[in-house]
C-alpha cells in the first residue's frame, strides 16, 4: 500500500473533508470513520454535489469535546496566521482550491510550515506533501466553493473563557446557535484589531460570518 492509500483509506471523490477531520481527530486520540461522520459534515451544494463544509467539520470536532473554530485570515497576513496556529500547537485543517480543478474546493491537514514551504497531509496525494509559499497562497484564493484564506482551528478544550465572556455576541442572530470563541488564544483582542490576523469567524450552526472588532 502506498503512502497515499495509507492516508486516504481508499478515498472517494469529494471525501477530502471527512478524511482530513478523521486524521485531525486522531491527533487527539479520537477514532472516527469517514463513513460515520460523512452525513454530519457534508451537504448538497448549488451545483448538485455532496461535499464537506468547513463549519460542519468544526461543529463535529466540538461534539468530540474539542475547541474548534472556522476563521478567515486577513489576506496580507495569511501565512503568518497559519504559522501562529502551528506554533501554538493548534491542529489546522485548510480549505483551499483543488489543485487540478480550480473551481472546486479541497481540504488538507497542516503538517508543518516554515517561511518558505507548507507541508500538508493530503487525502488524495498522501502525507507530507510540500508546497512552496507562493503556490499555496495562490491556491488559497477564493473560488465558487471557497471563501478564500479559511482554516479550521482545532485544539484541546480550555477552561479559559475570558475572551468568550468578553464578547457581546453569545448566540448567532441568524440561527440562535451558541457562539463559543475558542480556541480562545485565537480570539485575543490583539489579533482582531485593524492590523490583526483575522478578518472574520463563522457560526458553526449556520455558517453566518462575524467579526468581533
UniProtKB/TrEMBL annotation:
InterPro entries: Peptidase_C39. Pfam families: Peptidase_C39. One of its GO terms (cellular component) is membrane. It comes from the Bacteria. GO terms for molecular function: ATP binding; peptidase activity. Residues 8-141 form the Peptidase C39 domain. GO terms for biological process: proteolysis. This is Peptidase C39 domain-containing protein.
Amino acid at each position: 500500500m502506498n503512502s497515499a492509500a495509507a492516508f486516504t483509506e481508499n478515498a472517494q471523490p469529494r471525501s477530502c473533508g471527512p478524511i482530513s477531520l478523521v486524521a485531525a481527530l486522531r491527533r487527539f486520540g479520537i477514532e472516527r470513520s469517514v463513513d460515520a461522520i460523512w452525513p454530519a459534515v457534508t451537504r448538497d451544494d448549488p451545483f448538485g454535489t455532496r461535499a464537506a463544509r468547513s463549519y460542519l467539520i468544526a461543529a463535529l470536532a466540538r461534539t468530540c469535546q474539542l475547541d474548534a473554530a472556522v476563521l478567515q485570515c486577513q489576506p496580507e497576513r495569511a501565512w503568518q496566521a497559519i504559522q501562529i496556529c502551528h506554533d501554538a500547537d493548534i491542529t489546522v485543517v485548510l480549505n483551499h482550491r483543488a489543485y487540478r480543478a480550480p473551481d472546486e474546493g479541497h481540504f488538507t491537514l497542516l503538517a508543518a510550515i516554515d517561511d518558505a514551504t507548507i507541508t500538508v497531509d493530503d487525502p488524495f496525494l498522501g502525507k507530507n506533501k510540500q508546497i512552496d509559499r507562493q503556490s499555496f497562497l495562490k491556491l488559497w484564493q477564493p473560488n465558487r466553493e471557497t471563501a478564500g484564506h479559511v482554516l479550521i482551528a482545532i485544539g484541546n478544550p480550555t477552561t479559559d473563557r475570558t475572551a468568550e465572556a468578553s464578547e457581546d455576541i453569545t448566540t448567532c442572530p441568524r440561527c440562535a446557535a451558541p457562539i463559543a470563541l475558542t480556541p480562545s488564544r485565537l480570539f485575543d483582542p490583539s489579533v482582531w484589531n485593524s492590523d490583526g490576523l483575522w478578518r472574520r469567524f463563522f457560526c458553526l450552526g449556520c455558517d453566518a460570518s462575524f467579526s468581533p472588532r
